[in-house]
Amino acid sequence: MNLLGLHHITAMAGDPVANVAFYTRVLGLRLIKRTVNFDDPSTYHLYFGDTVGTPGSALTFFYWAGQPRGRIGSDQVTATAWSVPAASLDFWTARLTAHHLPFTTEARFGDQVLRFADPDGLGLEIVATREPDPRQPWSHPDIPIAHGLRGFHSVTLTHAASARTAALLVSTMGARETTRDETTRRARYALAQGVPGTCLDLLTLPDGPRGQPGLGTVHHVAFRVADDEAELAARSEWQTAGLNVSPQMDRNYFHSIYAREPGGILFEIATDTPGFAIDEPLETLGTTLKLPARYEPHRAAIEATLPPLPA
Ligand code: ZN
Question: Could you tell me which of 197, 206, 202, 150 has the C-alpha nearest to residue 181?
Fold first, then answer.
């Protein structure tokens, strides 16, 4: 399977206004797409990323106002990590402190990691990595480009037992284990070259709490392929491995297939094409509500139900 790394991560949040303020003003991401949940157009589906929404930078949210928080635990994606240079550790430590965001630090495979949560409790990390990462961050008035979030570093998947997930990653999805820490029971897999944006960690916590879906939890993680041909080849390989794979679906900005891995986490494979500029210019990404054609006749009613977002 010819995966290129991480594509996007989709999570569940409560209030879209607080969510936009956090990701754009505190973390300095760009709101790259404002659309609706295609299954419930009375709620937003918002995408954050770098300047153009490069695959490997996009974090997206569904909004379930008033629903209970989930519980972070096993059989979930338990952390979404961004990459910054090692020299940016002090900047982000100071910035999280200035925004009164509680955080912890840990050393992980030679890098320093800041661990914190978004307003709904979603597990986030900033990995200050010694690895070169040439990806360019979105510009933010308070965050010098040198310190901006480069895109994802990795995701952490937690299971009570990780063996079957590891077997799928290695035997079917072309990943390789690059390093492992027996003390913390964390193993790192490279989906492609093993550089930031292509890493996935399996954390084995036999006695940890079981995850519960809800606000502040990840809905699914998507991996990159170049195009439809690579996606359909990947689909065959997932089927051969015995996974129950969805048909290919058109998500406007990419094409997707879905399957639940043996540990219960929803995996997606998404194409790099056509990308987020398919329905608006790059310069103004995310500034107006984009609707799929079938909802355009109902635009006025849909817009009336959606709360205004921070500029
Ligand atoms: Zn997705």
Answer: 202
